[in-house]
Amino acid sequence: MLPTTxxxxxxxxxxxxxxxIGVAGVVTRRNAIIIFMSLELMLNAVNLSxxxxxxxxxxxxxxxxxxxxxxxxxxxxxxxxxxxxALFRNKQTVYVDEINIMKW
Amino acid sequence: xxxxxIMFSVFAIGAVASAxxxxxxxxxxxxxxxxxxxxxxxxxxYLTMQAQFVAAVQVLVYAGAIxxxxxxxxxxxxxxxxxxxPDRSGLRTTLGSLxxxxxxxMIGIAVIARPTGRMDLSPKAIEIGTTEAIGQSLFTTYLxxxxxxxxxxxxxxIGSVILAKRHVKEG
Lengths: 104, 171
Hints:
Helix content of chain A: over 70%
Number of domains of chain A: 1
Structural class of chain B: mainly alpha
Number of strands of chain B: 0
Largest interface: A-B, 73 and 86 residues
Largest sheet of chain B: none
Radius of gyration of chain A: 18 Å
Shape of chain B: globular
Number of strands of chain A: 0
Oligomer: heterodimer
Largest sheet of chain A: none
Radius of gyration of chain B: 21 Å
Helix content of chain B: over 70%
CATH topology of chain A: Helix Hairpins
Distance between the termini of chain B: 73 Å
Distance between the termini of chain A: 57 Å
CATH class of chain A: Mainly Alpha
């Protein structure tokens, strides 16, 4: 039998599933840009649970945090992609397993 | 079945499917397009929780600004399909998926074992999700973090210009 309204747990479990998909992307992929996109997946999963807690408890703080997380994510996107660009210019690759100059 | 349940089901299935597409496609452009779809699904989920402002900002910032930047870099670097790893290619995927699965079980236990009872959408949700309420809070309680974020964005702007700049030898 299906519920008539969605309880908080459903949003939290969905958020956990999305976060784990993001983690799987980070640890399995080699392309730095796709790893970067998986990071965005993880950030968005956390945002989802923050909005859920905010809306279900009637407190605005969660949504303010989401606003600030989005600003930090935008800054991170700009800097991260600039690093990928600089890396490609030096090593001619975006695959992280070929970037091993710091490997002992 | 109410509208909220139908919308949640549609957007939740869409969000998980597009997230899986994002991490499994070999072509980075296909990944990026799946991620745009994922952001729109999340926008729908925010709207089921009456968070209108966050939904609008999600489309503007993520689906708009950040994804344009990602697609721009993919096009600029001309990244093609990912070639298979020369050796031990299966090990990375197997071990990585296994670790992710362990993490999923741990988070699942933490969510399900929560001792509080069933929680439903607060009746105040429709008031706190508006731009007015967020703006009120942003310029009173959260004024200092707001200013700090503007400084952070300036630092990111300068940092990314310096990082991505082509270094020309002088003289």
